[in-house]
């Protein structure tokens, strides 16, 4: 018996075809609005306002403008849009640099024009009234108010909010705390923040087993806040002395609109990141130092979006993808997220692999891998090798369409690298076929590592082993359950192939772990989605294996705390003060071209914080190389008369000023790695204070700068 139709509902005769409702793409208005906002950013406005005007174009405007005619799944849009927003400015700015026509205004107008033209063309095809109707319809379907109310009423979200409050307490306690050799985590504030991190892991697993996707996503965001935000909130300026080598080149490009000679800076052979960063600082009105200060948290958000897109492109479920993103964020202790080409290249690389993995169903979108590969090649040396190796293996597994796509990407890379092969050969194209030798790091002590360094090294290795072992065990588990997708281990373990021929200056093992944690986290996510209860499986939901859940949660929490310690283990010697940056900038601005500025350890002193370094390096490319002879001497004992005589000779024959910089962090660095004998630095300061040819030129509470000034003797009237 057919139930009666309610009033107002009329049966449609079967002979009348029902036209399906085609959703109106919202890409054109979004693209047009972001392009218009970018044009407004050209007006001299406060930096924060200009940043807010240009950001929409980078986050989604360019991606929308280039892809709105395509029907892309949401996970691919989430990964591809920010990647295109990163790649487009880099490509345009680099091209204008090479042509000698670089201008931040020209780059902004070029990008905004793409958005405006694409948006205008799309709006002409769709009536504005229909677009407004579609916007209202989607707003009603999204029900944002109901979602917000449901979120605030969730016990899990309230627990997450409490954990963030606990983290804030730890942040306050850590501010100004005396950090020892064991790092930030071994302070009261660090322990409180680590506790908040473990609690966030518990809430996340709770969300996974109850299929609470919204709060699980919030837990991932909270994890990024807990782990990455202290880097920006507890410091005045960016950490790591080597960060300022990148800041100086960005500053030079922004000031001159050109690149320095390659003999001055090897980075000019791969200028993509620096061209894009110089444009962003000019377009947003933000100093490169300030951009670098908040760079790491932003890059982790973009990396999380890219990993989500890759996980879903590889066929993982929503909850498996969430677990993968969470695991990748928790175990990343490497510290390669600072203001550097590697950070941007990793986000683009994961996006390209996601395009490869999803190319069988999204072939049109996969073609974006070719220009993205070009931007990766322009910006970084090692990352394209991994992408091509991984893509080649995926092609052999019949996962890439068209099959010539990887060849096209390889051709783009070869076209760029072959003219620069001499620069690559200078540092060794092939450093040996022994993976164990290539896996050795470039960090080592001279007189013996400290206990803190030994503990941190053991923890870091334990985290790396846990990641690789868990990924291998996850694949075996999936294989035994009849789900052996070989694309997953290819993405996870293909970076290890890099160790077959390259040590990358002692950094290859760090890059291998960085690249592999993406695929390993995806493998672990795929397995844990089946191991943990819930997920719509009535059998597992009925059994509720509590012991298994507790064990998984405990294991993730332990690894997360270990990675948290590894990430902040060098806090005492990696943190740089604002006064040190200002002091270094002043020295470079006032220095003569023949000036020499030396130090003994890569800690505490921002070496090239402004573009003025180029003027000095053009006269002497090695003007700021470390004093290796003195470092080796102090590792054996205290400064000798021969050491002081050698320093005097170096200062005497220097054409301009000769400076020795002794930052406070150098002593901590020495104690941590065992570079110098205890008391050797203090003894050196005493000897230089007693020498008539040396005087304290300038200093601050964290730095002593000695300058050589020759005092003639009776036998040396000159």
TrEMBL record:
Which species does the entry assign this protein to? Gordonia mangrovi
Domain of life from the UniProt record: Bacteria
**Taxonomic lineage:** Bacteria, Bacillati, Actinomycetota, Actinomycetes, Mycobacteriales
What is the designated name of this protein? Glycosyltransferase RgtA/B/C/D-like domain-containing protein
Q: Quick check: keyword Mitochondrion in the entry?
A: no
Q: Which residues cross the membrane?
A: 47-66, 78-99, 105-123, 155-175, 181-206, 291-311, 316-333, 339-357, 364-382, 402-419, 462-480, 486-505, 512-529, 549-568
| Keyword annotations of the record | Membrane, Transmembrane, Transmembrane helix
Q: Would I find Membrane among this entry's keywords?
A: yes
């Amino acid at each position: 018996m057919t139930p009666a139709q309610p009033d107002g509902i009329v049966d449609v005769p079967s002979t009348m075809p029902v036209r399906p409702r085609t959703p109106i793409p919202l890409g054109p208005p979004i693209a047009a609005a972001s392009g218009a906002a970018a044009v407004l950013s050209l007006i001299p406005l406060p930096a924060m306002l200009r940043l807010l005007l240009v950001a929409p174009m980078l986050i989604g405007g360019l991606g929308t403008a280039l892809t709105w005619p395509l029907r892309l799944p949401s996970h691919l849009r989430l990964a591809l849009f920010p990647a295109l927003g990163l790649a487009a400015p880099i490509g345009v700015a680099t091209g204008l640099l090479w042509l000698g026509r670089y201008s931040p205004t020209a780059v902004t107008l070029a990008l905004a024009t793409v958005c405006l033209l694409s948006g205008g063309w799309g709006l002409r095809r769709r009536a504005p009234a229909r677009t407004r109707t579609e916007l209202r319809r989607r707003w009603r379907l999204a029900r944002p108010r109901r979602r917000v109310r449901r979120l605030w009423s969730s016990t899990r979200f309230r627990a997450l909010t409490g954990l963030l409050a606990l983290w804030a307490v730890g942040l306050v306690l850590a501010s100004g705390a005396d950090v020892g050799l064991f790092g930030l985590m071994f302070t009261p504030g660090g322990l409180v923040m680590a506790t908040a991190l473990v609690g966030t892991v518990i809430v996340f697993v709770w969300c996974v087993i109850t299929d609470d996707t919204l709060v699980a996503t919030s837990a991932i965001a909270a994890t990024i806040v807990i782990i990455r935000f202290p880097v920006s909130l507890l410091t005045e300026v960016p950490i790591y002395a080597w960060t300022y080598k990148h800041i100086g080149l960005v500053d030079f490009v922004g000031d001159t609109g050109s690149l320095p000679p390659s003999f001055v800076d090897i980075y000019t052979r791969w200028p993509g990141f620096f061209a894009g960063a110089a444009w962003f600082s000019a377009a947003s009105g933000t100093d490169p130092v300030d951009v670098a200060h908040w760079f790491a948290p932003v890059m982790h958000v973009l990396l999380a979006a890219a990993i989500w897109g890759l996980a879903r492109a590889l066929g993982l479920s929503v909850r498996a993808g969430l677990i993968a993103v969470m695991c990748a964020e928790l175990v990343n202790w490497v510290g390669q997220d600072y203001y550097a080409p590697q950070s941007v290249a990793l986000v683009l690389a994961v996006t390209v692999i996601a395009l490869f993995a999803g190319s069988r169903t999204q072939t049109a979108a996969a073609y974006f891998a070719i220009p993205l590969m070009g931007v990766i090649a322009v910006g970084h040396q090692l990352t394209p090798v991994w992408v091509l190796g991984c893509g080649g293996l995926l092609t052999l597994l019949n996962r890439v369409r068209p099959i010539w796509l990887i060849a096209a990407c390889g051709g783009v890379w070869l076209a760029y690298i072959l003219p620069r092969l001499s620069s690559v050969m200078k540092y060794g194209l092939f450093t040996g076929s022994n993976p164990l030798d290539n896996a050795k790091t470039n960090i080592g002590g001279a007189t013996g590592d400290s206990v803190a360094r030994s503990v941190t090294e053991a923890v870091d290795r334990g985290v790396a082993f846990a990641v690789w072992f868990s990924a291998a065990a996850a694949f075996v588990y999936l294989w035994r359950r009849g789900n052996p997708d070989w694309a997953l281990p290819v993405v996870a373990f293909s970076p290890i192939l890099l160790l077959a021929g390259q040590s990358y200056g002692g950094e290859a093992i760090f890059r291998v772990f960085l690249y592999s944690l993406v695929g390993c986290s995806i493998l672990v996510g795929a397995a844990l989605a089946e191991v943990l209860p819930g997920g719509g499986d009535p059998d597992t939901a009925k059994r509720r294996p509590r012991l298994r859940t507790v064990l998984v949660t405990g294991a993730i929490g332990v690894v997360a705390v270990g990675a948290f310690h590894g990430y902040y283990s060098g806090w005492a010697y990696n943190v740089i003060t604002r006064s040190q940056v200002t002091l270094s900038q002043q020295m470079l601005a006032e220095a003569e071209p023949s000036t020499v500025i030396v130090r003994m350890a890569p800690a505490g002193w921002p070496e090239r914080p402004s573009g003025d370094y180029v003027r000095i390096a053009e006269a002497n490319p090695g003007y700021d190389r470390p004093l290796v002879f003195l470092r080796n001497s102090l590792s054996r004992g205290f400064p000798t008369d021969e050491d002081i005589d050698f320093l005097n000779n170096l200062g005497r024959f220097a054409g301009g000023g000769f400076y020795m910089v002794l930052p406070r962090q150098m002593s901590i660095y020495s104690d941590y790695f065992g570079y110098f004998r205890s008391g050797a630095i203090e003894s050196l300061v005493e000897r230089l204070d007693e020498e008539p040819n040396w005087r304290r030129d300038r200093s601050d509470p964290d730095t002593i700068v000695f300058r050589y000034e020759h005092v003639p003797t009776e036998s040396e009237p000159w």
